[in-house]
Structures are given as C-alpha cells and as structure tokens.
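Recall that a protein's primary structure is simply its ordered list of amino acids. Everything else, from secondary elements to tertiary packing, is in principle encoded there. The following example makes that idea concrete.
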Amino acid sequence: MEENDIIKILDFWNFWRSNPKTGIRRQFYVNKIETLLEDSEIPIIIETGIRRAGKSFIAKQVAEDLIKHGITKTRILIINLEDERLIDRNYSMLLEIYNTYKRIINPSETSIIILDEAQEIDGWEHFVRGLSERAEAKFIVTGSSSKLLDSEFSSLLSGRQVVVYVHPLNFLELKLFTRDHNEMYRYITEGGFPAIVLSRVKNDIVSSYFDTIILKDVIRRFRIKKQEDIIRLAKFYVTSIGSKITFRSISKFLGLPVKTVYNFSIYLEKSYLIFFVDRFSFSPKKSGKSPRKVYSIDNSFPSFLGMNPIEIKGRLLENSVADTLYLISRHNLEFKFYYWNENNREVDFIIKNGHNYEALQVTYSVSSEKTKIREIEGLLDCASRLNLATVEIITMDYSYHETINDIAIDYVPAAEWIKRKLEQYRIA
C-alpha cells in the first residue's frame, strides 16, 4: 500500500486528527487495563470475549484516558484489522503500517498499540512479540474468540500477556446505558449487547450477531464443512438454557454423531456463544460423568431467536444469574460455580469461593405453595450436606425471610442480588 493510503486509513481510527467515538464508559474494564499498562512487566494485554461485547470501545476509552492524563496523541496507534480497506491482511502488512506510522507520525517515542480484532490476521503474534521484546511498544490486543488464547500463541508471546475478559453489559452497566424504569425485566428479555440495548430494531441485530459469530468465529476458524449441523446445534443450545444435557442425548435428538456434537460444542464454547456448568461433587470423576447445564452468554439469543420471552421468563432469569456468575468467575480465579443434583433434588447454583459455599435457587415467582416447596426442599438438603446456615432464593421481585429446620432462607429480588454480587467482587 502507498504511505498516503495507510495514513488516510489510520487517520480515521486514531486520535491524531479526528475524534473517534468512544461510547458510554465501562469503567471497570478501563480501570483494569490502565492498571495493567502501568506495570512494566506486562507489555501485552489481550481483551477477549464474544463479538460485539464492546472490546473496541473499551480500548478506545483507555486511549482517551491516557491522552487526558498527558500521553501524546501520536504515541497511541490504533489498527482496526476489520477495516475493509486493509486488503492484504498479513504480517508484512502490519510491519508496513507500523513502519509508515513511525516514519510519519511518531519517529522517536515508544508506542501504545491497539490491535483491534487481531484474529482477522495471520502473524499478529509475531508482530506483537517482536515489538514488545524490543520495548518499542506496549499492546492492547482485542479479539472476538478464544483463538487469541490458544497455547501456541501463549508460547509465542512468552507468557508476557495478561487476559482481560469482556462480557456484554452486566446489570449495573445496563442501568447506565438506559433510564428504563424496569431495568431488570429489560435485562432478562434483551440481554446486554450495547448496540441491542440502544437500538429499536433488536431482532435484526440479534440475528446478525448470531450469524456472524457462527460464520466467523466457528465455521471459518474451525473449517467446518457441515454448516447446517453447527447452526442447528447452536440454536438448540441457546434455546435450551438451563437444561441438563449430555453429548449422547443431543446426538440422538439431532441425529448427529456423538463425536461431532462434542467437537461442535467445544467450538461454540470457544466462540463465547455458550458455556456449560458442571454438577457439583466432591468427586471430580463423578462430576465429570454427570450431565452439564448449558447457558447462553447473553439473554438476547434465547429471547429473540424463536422463543417467546414471556413463556420462558423463568429460564431467562436463571440465565441472567448464570451470566453474572460466569462474569465473576472470569475475573476471580478462586470463584467457581456448579449446579447441585442429589436424590432427585436440585439446586440451580452452588458457589464455591475458596473454602466458602453458597447455595441458591432461581425462580421467577413463588406464587404457588407447590413451587415454594419444590425450591425449598433441594436447598435444605444441600444446606445440610454443605453445612450452610443460610441459603437464597432469587426471584424477580419477591422479598421475604424465613427459617426452616434452623436454616435461614432469604428470598431476594434479582436486581438486588446481582447488584450485591457485582459490588462484592468489585465488578461495578
């Protein structure tokens, strides 16, 4: 490419001669990345998470902050690898862009380089490693699949990278994005993708996101030939949230080989579209042989892809709680969560944080005595086995407290519970 063409493209994305849109602030991620940038031993920060969760905007918010704090604008280089004008996406192109930038924009100072959507280009890891090892630049690398975390890349980057997982908007972030008087209902029915939250044509965007994730982060990445099969499995998963599954049972239901279901499930998990929750057991062998529960990374998928949110509002509430737990677990290494199933009694979630346990059920309402008894029985059994003094039932809007068999049972509205948990783990 000609130097003038390169500079023209870079001008559009960088702060030197324009003011790129940075969106609504997501302070938790901005603070975390800025703290990591201050550490001289960490030259590479990798932002990863599902496509369209807001990683690019967060990186630009960090750049905007750095400039406000005195970093010269020209020291920050943003390379958007999804720009269609960058035709030959390879290692040589990256070097050409960087060398042009150094000659014309920043010939003398070290740089902070934002490499946006790095998975779009082969050789990005060699580019990043070379400049970081020569101390010419620090990097914020964003990517829309776990491809950036593959062991081959970790080895090439010499373990000098730190990963920051970016989730769609959590409930507290949603409240900053909208002034809806009923944020919790909106959260469970629309999810947390920023563009979907702010748009009036939500169905079209959700379908577009789903198709793009399947095509770019699954089919292309893993070179899948049976595309209809992976699409069927993906839709099955996002419309089966909260269900216990085995690869063999899905194989029979969809008419696919067990090995295909297993491989495709791993691919979908690596794209961040879904995640699985294991059964709790003190025996890893027993846990590994049990069915797993499946959840969608965002409620927009089960809510808009062929399901009626009114009919599945209880499952959507459960998925929102699961998403909150998943987010916390990605930023707290000791935090784990499972489901409980013993003696035909089930508890939706068991939280394990170090040596501490919590047990919680999720139900949209407790309007019937039958529902209340069903939810309580499993909790009481679980509490006695784990020696818990208190358990919780998360509801849409019901608040109550009672004690049964010396076990305190707290009924907590979901908005209150999620807010408390995010603040407890400082994800707010």
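The radius of gyration is 23 Å. The chain has a mean pLDDT of 92.
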